[in-house]
Design a protein that fits this description.
Elements: E1 3-7, H1 12-23, E2 27-32, E3 47-50, H2 59-62, E4 67-70, H3 81-102, E5 106-110, E6 122-125, H4 138-150, E7 159-165, E8 168-169, H5 176-184, E9 188-192, E10 198-199, E11 202-203, H6 204-214, E12 224-228, E13 234-235, H7 236-246, E14 252-256, H8 258-274, H9 285-292, E15 295-297, H10 300-306, H11 314-327
Helix pairs in contact: 1-6, 3-4, 8-9
């Protein structure tokens, strides 16, 4: 089995990936910036270290490693462009350079389908992609730029794989479901449009499986890019109902037309930019787009090349998340 460096292991996806690779027999070095969160690996065979990939020396971390699984990222729909450039672009470029110099054989990069974002319904989106003239936010822009770093021909010696997991949820999630639940705690939740638009989500354990498969996928001279989802697109209203029911929450929906929601999101963004510190607005065009417009991904390439088969269903993933959410002081 391989000696693997997993970045972002103090975060949500990275911690699951590190555990899964170790359970699969790999020798894992898990790194992150938050030492206290790395304590979850105590008592396991996983070695840990702290590092800021955007600035700290990386030579010792990649030395003698066969592969790197790069999960570290600043993931947020709101924030200054400079922060995303540092965390997602500069850090990826530095890690690629260090890995190449150390003779690492394979580089697996966790990107994001946020690059596909449009205020329009989209179905079965393939991996082929042409960037927009204007990005919805600095996060999506930085994730595409990080993919461009991975695709740089100077790293052609390494086998490179890019994964784009969509709307990842599960135990330890501090973003997608928690954001929804914080709003729903008021007793009502805004329903953008009729709630029947289809969305794809992905249980975090399935993402970890995809990362493990990427370590042993056929070698190619060019980077291989894969969409990753649960393969269970469902109406957003149904997804939310299942989540609320799993937590015994009684939540009333308040319908908001899509066009009106987009306008309100734009106004809220403008107001937030005028406030000191530019705090994240409660409503944004990105948030409206995620819940108000269909977005499903074609995962046939991952099924065919990686042998990717989601093992954990959305219902089981929601059950696991809800059990974790109810037993942790996460809210």
């Amino acid at each position: 089995m391989a000696r693997v460096l997993v970045t972002g292991a103090s975060g949500f996806i990275g911690s699951h990936v590190a555990h899964a690779l170790s359970a699969g027999g790999h020798d894992v070095l898990a790194i992150g910036r938050n030492r206290s969160r790395l304590a979850v690996f105590a008592g396991t065979p996983i070695a840990v270290d702290t590092a800021d990939i955007a600035s700290d020396p990386l030579g010792n971390l990649v030395a003698s490693r066969h592969a790197v699984v790069h999960c570290a990222a600043l993931s947020s729909p709101w924030g200054p462009r400079e922060a995303f450039q540092r965390a997602n672009v500069q850090a990826t470029r530095r890690l690629l350079e260090a890995a190449d110099q150390a003779g690492v054989e394979r580089f697996v990069h966790l990107s994001s389908p946020s690059i596909y974002f449009r205020l329009a319904d989209q179905f079965d989106i393939p991996e082929a992609f042409v960037p927009p003239r204007r990005w919805i936010n600095a996060y999506a822009e930085s994730k595409w730029q990080s993919e461009q770093c991975v695709a740089d021909a100077r790293y052609a010696r390494m086998s490179r794989v890019v994964l784009r997991p969509r709307a990842v949820f599960g135990e330890g999630d501090q973003a997608i479901f928690p954001r929804i639940l914080r709003v729903a705690n008021r007793g009502w939740f805004p329903q953008i449009g009729d709630g029947r638009v289809l969305i794809d989500t992905t249980y975090v354990g399935n993402v970890a499986d995809a990362a493990a498969a990427a370590l042993v996928s056929p070698r190619h001279a060019e980077p291989q890019v894969f969409n990753i989802t649960n393969g269970e697109p469902m109406p957003v209203r149904e997804l939310l109902d299942r989540l609320f029911a799993s937590l015994d929450m009684k939540v009333r929906t308040v319908r908001l037309p899509r066009r009106a929601a987009v306008m309100l999101g734009a106004l809220a963004e403008g107001a937030a930019r005028l406030r000191p510190g530019q705090p994240e607005p409660r409503l944004s065009r990105y948030g409206v787009g995620v819940l108000g417009y269909a977005q499903t991904l074609d995962i046939s390439h991952a099924r065919r090349v990686l042998g990717y088969r989601p093992r954990v269903s959305i219902d089981e993933g929601i059950r696991r998340f809800s059990q974790w959410w109810s037993t942790h002081d996460a809210h």
